Structure formats: C-alpha cells, structure tokens
Amino acid sequence: MADEDPILSAEGVSLRFGGVKALTDVSFSVRKGEVFSIIGPNGAGKTSMVNCVSGRYRPTEGRILFDGQDITKLGPNRRAGLGIGRTFQNLALFGHMSVLDNIMVGRHHLLKAGFLRGMMYWWGGAQREELAHRAEVEEIIDFLEIQHVRKAQAGTLPYGLRKRVELARAVALKPKLILLDEPMAGMNLEEKEDMARFILDLNQEWGMTVLMIEHDMGVVMDISHRVMVLDFGRKIAEGLPEEVMAHPQVRRAYLGVDDEAVNPAEIDA
After folding, report:
1. Which of 93, 104, 166, 196 could be 154's S-S partner, Cβ–Cβ 3.0 to 4.6 Å?
2. DSSP track, the chain
3. Per-residue model confidence as pLDDT tens digits over 7-46
4. For the ABC transporter domain, which residue ranges apply (predicted)?
5. Domain map (residue ranges) of the chain
C-alpha cells in the first residue's frame, strides 16, 4: 500500500538537446509503495523523463530528489547504488551470456569483494559472498518463473522471455525504486498478463515502488495507483487512472476529441 511520503520528486525538470525541448518544467512525485505510470503519445518525453531519473540524462533545469537526497548531478552508477533499478525499451542484455550470469550482473553494485577479492578467497569470504548472491538470484529466477532457461544464452530466447530476464536483472539490484520502460512492448496477451502479475507482486509482496512507462492502457488502468500524462514534453494531467482518462486534454492528446466519452481501451499511445 502506497503511503504519502515521496520516494522520488522531480521539480521543474526541463531537458533540451540543442534547440529541441524534450521536457519543459515537469514536476511530479512518486510515493513510496505505489505503481506510478507515465503515459503520452509517441515523442511526448516519457523516456526522456525516465532517463533523467536514472541519470542517463542530466536535466537542463530543475532537480530530482530520491529519498530526500538531491541526485540531479549523480551518474547512473551512483543512483543504482542508492537503490534505483531500471529496464530499457530496447533490450540491453548480454546475448552471449547465460540467463543466470545476466542476472548476476545486476548484483554488481551489492558486491563487497573488490581488489582484495583474491585475499578474501583465502579465508572463504568472497566464496560465501558469491554463494549468498547466487541464492538471491535463484530466488528471483523462481519468482519470475524462468528456471527452465536459467542456463540458456540470453540471446537465444524468445522476445517475451528476454524481457522477463531483463526485469530479473533489474530486480537483482534489490532496488527501492524500479523504472520500467515499456515492459509490455512486443508481447502477446498471455505474456502481458504474466508481466503485469509479476509487476504487481514486486510492488505488493517485495515492496518495490514502480515507475512505469507503458502504452497498453488496459494494463495502466489495471495496475497503476496514479498516472501522469506528458504531451510535447509538458505535463498535462496527473491523478487516479480513471480521472486522468476522463481529462479533456488527455482525450485531445490521444484522439483529437474534445467532449466525447472515450473508452480507455481505445487509447493506444
């Protein structure tokens, strides 16, 4: 259950690439324990906003706070170390590596054995640490129901399973906040239902706060606590899913209508 304390706040975030404005004065907050979705037409600035949160982009103006700390100038690795994990719209797996090893990569921020690793092996410390990390990874593999492909090369898997492996790698960081960039893209109905179930379980059972970009409005309506809508890099609405879908500006942004009642299932960003 979400509480009122924000885990993430964006304050007046603007982003420019030369003369192109990707984001203009966007402010919002994500509460601890909620599923918060960002929607909008293609080119609305959704991924740019998530990239600002993850540290891939640095805002031209404004700031971003995570757990009360200003992280605007921190790089992606520092933010990951603070507890921000993410998946990508375009899969970023190591195709030649096994599923197990891809997920283990997600644990690297949690590894304590560094340059003294060789010495630690003498006492078995690094060995114990690796065993503990592998146990965590096996739990994630079981949770996401990918036991049958744990030793397979990631690049050989069907698309839907690769998306699940990428989610597993992000979860392996044990993030407080997980950023999901179109987790349902390219999936069939059964795969979408499975992914929605996994996201809800991560939120409700594992206690992860979720910030999600998603085009499937049925999924957004079903699993989101709150929704924000971007259009041409500006925030045009924010609130409960049913309130946002009834918003006149949202209807205009998606379908070019002003006063017609719109079924949310008809909206396809």
Report:
1. 93
2. ---SSEEEEEEEEEEEETTEEEEEEEEEEEETT-EEEEE-STTSSHHHHHHHHHTSS--SEEEEEETTEE-TT--HHHHHHHTEEE--SS----TTSBHHHHHHHTTGGG----TTHHHHHHHTHHHHHHHHHHHHHHHHHHHTT-GGGTTSBGGGS-HHHHHHHHHHHHHHT--SEEEEESTTTT--HHHHHHHHHHHHHHHHTS--EEEEE-SBHHHHHHH-SEEEEEETTEEEEEE-HHHHHT-HHHHHHHH--SSS---GGG-B-
3. 999 999 999 999 899 999 999 999 999 999 999 998 999 9
4. 8-257
5. 1-83+175-269, 95-173
